[in-house]
Amino acid sequence: MTTAAPASRRELYVGPSRGQRRARLPADAALLLIGACFLLPLLWLVFASLDPEAGHETRVPGEVSLDNFAAVMTPGLLFQPLWNSMVLSAGTAAVNLVAAVLAAYPLSRYRSRFNRPFLYAVLFGTCLPVTAIMVPVYGLFVQLELLDSMPATIFFMATTTLPMAIWMTKNFMDAVPVSLEEAAWVDGASGLAALRTIVLPLMRQGLGVVFIFVFIQAWGNFFVPFVLLLSEARQPAAVSIFSFFGQHGAVAYGQLAAFSILYSVPVLALYVIVARGAGSSFALTGAMKG
Amino acid sequence: MPVLPLMRPLPTWRMPAGLRRRARLLPVVPAVLLLLVFLAGPVLWAFQASFTNAALTGRNARSPGWVGLDNYQRLLTDPVLPLSLGLTVLFVGGSAILGQNLLGLTIAVLMRQARKPVAAVVGTAVVAAWVLPEIVAAFAAYAYFSRDGTLNQLLGGLGFGQPDWLYSFPMAAIMLANVWRGTAFSMLVYRAALNDVPADVTEAALMDGATGWQRLAFITLPMIRGSIATNLMLITLQTLAVFTLIWVMTAGGPANSSTTLPVLAYVEAFKFGDIGYGTAVASLLILIGAVFGAAYVRLLREGKP
């Protein structure tokens, strides 16, 4: 921000292209410094994953090896937890999509006294701190004997992201012009038939954004499965990562880092798809605009 | 919210108007059921359970007894509560309202002046910390701040002291970690908001001789105040709920010196096995979240009449 002042004066007196070029240098430098600060904590992750004798400290590995990756790539350590994460996240995203599309259709297409209060209640729901609800949810799951149940966990995780999903889906649906459905209605198609054959195909990019958005959140969620899933066979990667902390205080740092990278790659890739496909702030504006 | 014009289909069989209007809302039912069972249910259960002596194991786990306001009385006299409340305010104020918010705005403003590739690369670096799974981000932050971690290596290289951050300055460590983790959200909000500021307005001010600082303070910021308010609300709520980062880095320690409310609720309920008291703490947190949530909804409603 300190560079803003000279930038403007230069623009005024010198030609815009030369002036801007000069003003850009301090802004570039400041940004690169900030960017370096943000990358530093990730440096350890990369170096340690390639270093068979990694510890806390960041150091360029004496010899680069893929031993850590080879060591974690076993069914028990990597593939089963990743599969569990996959089931949890895909299930959560699917439940979200179905419930959100169904709910968004009447909210977007029919005028009703019920719409506004419902939407504001939903918005309010997005605000409740989920971590605060985990203690009571644990109590609830004990009483209903749902602890350690994959479907119940999926439905709970879906509910925590559902308000945001409804809000986003409704905004994407509002962008589909209603005139196309009117023709179908005149031909006698029901509302849901029009939804399936006309609206959904037109908003599939938006649906993709909602699905990926929910999937990323579920994939990264640690606290919910940590509290609700007890048996090792069901735990997703976010929770099984603790298995690298040995019983006697010995931590396999290199393997922990290698596992973290393998576990992070899918969501990084999904984020790139959303950002590339629709502009980096697209998903966010879908979520934020009223 | 634009409400689209209502166009009725031509039904072969006419339901009574009231019934038909209600039938249209049927698709909302699955969403409402989910929200009632898994969101409203636990919240109500929390308020109810906070009046009992429910426990994690033992006799009180099977049949919790009603203890009235005991948990809340204990809460009021518990010396950890004021400490935990203060730490929560410090954490939210320092890392979200000051840290993430100002840094996010700074990055967004700088990005408009910097070269495109530089802005893209730095944007990716900031977003990377935000998109990573929270447990991975927490481990990376833990390694970074640990005694022989990257930060101390840097400080040592520059000739400074090397404190044990996680023990000597646990709040500073988790606040910096939360700024690192969450700034991307503010950055994205402010980038979108700044893009919406019409160029001719700032150009006019430029012609009148306003400096960059003046334009930012008197033109740009007032024009994006809606986004600022929304962003402040959302990052406050997100930061209020941060658990994993703190749990992995310090677990609330040493000696409760980084125990924010979510950590306190978890520790009481699951480490000490006192679900009743833990839910009392959680209820307090839910109430605080509800106040901010209501303020946020109000803000949005006033934004568009």
What does this structure look like?
The complex is a heterodimer of chains A (290) and B (305). Chain A is mainly alpha-helical. Chain A folds into two domains: 16-65, no CATH class; 68-289, MetI-like (MetI-like fold), CATH 1.10.3720. Chain A has 14 helices and no strands. Chain A has helices at residues 4-13, 16-50, 67-72, 75-109, 115-127, 130-143, 150-174, 179-186, 191-202, 204-220, 223-228, 237-240, 253-278, 282-288. Chain B is mostly helical and 305 residues long. Chain B has a single domain, classed as MetI-like (MetI-like fold), CATH 1.10.3720.10. Chain B has helices at residues 17-23, 29-49, 59-62, 70-77, 80-113, 116-131, 134-145, 150-157, 165-168, 170-196, 199-207, 212-223, 225-240, 244-249, 261-271, 275-303. The model of chain B is unreliable at 1-6 (pLDDT under 50). Chains A and B meet through α1, α2, α4, α5 and α6 of A and α2, α5, α6, α7 and α8 of B.
Keywords for this structure?
heterodimer, A: 290 residues, mainly alpha, MetI-like fold, 2 domains, 14 helices, disordered N terminus, disordered C terminus, B: 305 residues, 16 helices, 0% strand
The amount of beta strand of chain B, in percent, is: under 5%
Straight-line N-to-C gap of chain B: 10 Å
Oligomer status: heterodimer
**SSE string of chain A:** HHHHHHHHHHHHHH
Using the coordinates shown, work out and report the CATH topology of the largest domain in chain A: MetI-like fold
Distance between the termini of chain A: 30 Å
Radius of gyration of chain A: 24 Å
What fraction strand of chain A? under 5%
Elements of chain B, N to C (H/E): HHHHHHHHHHHHHHHH
Unreliable spans of chain B: 1-6
- SS elements, strand count of chain B: 0
Largest sheet of chain A: none
